[in-house]
Amino acid sequence: MLKGAETVLPRSFTETGDKPNFVVDYSDLPAAAREVGDILASCGRIFDSGGLVKVTTQSGSEFPTVERLSAEAIAQEIHKVRRPVRLAKDGTPIPMTLPTRVARMYLNMPDEWTLQPLNGVTTTPLLALDRLAFLKAMTVAPGSGWRMFRRCGSRANQPTRRPPPPCMM
Prior knowledge:
By secondary structure, the protein is an alpha/beta fold. The protein has two domains: 1-117, no CATH class; 119-153, no CATH class. It contains three helices and eleven strands. The N and C termini lie far apart (66 Å).
């Protein structure tokens, strides 16, 4: 809460427009960096793979790739899901760009990361210990850190008239 503010706003998020506000308090940037981590963890697109990474599909390719995120890329990801603002003296939210200083601070706080691990990416089904295949569009093999992305519309997803190879029987 701000002293003298007529409008009482929550410390971090207030709904406006299509995205919730993310209030950046310049007097406590480490707290803002921790909130960046909470936002990234809740969006489900950013993973921990010895650094912050995002699984993307490059244009012209149907296969996923892993992209390491810089401070600038983290700021862009935050802007996709939140509206960073600072508060005026009267408590009015003023839109702003997330400072890369805050994103760099979060990159340097690996002990604070609550992201899901990413050990690898595959486009083929994974088998669990009980030999069940994970066949959803994006599936997490529980506890493994692997993500499976199914290529929709590819020949691999269509039935074939050929019998399966002997090793599959």
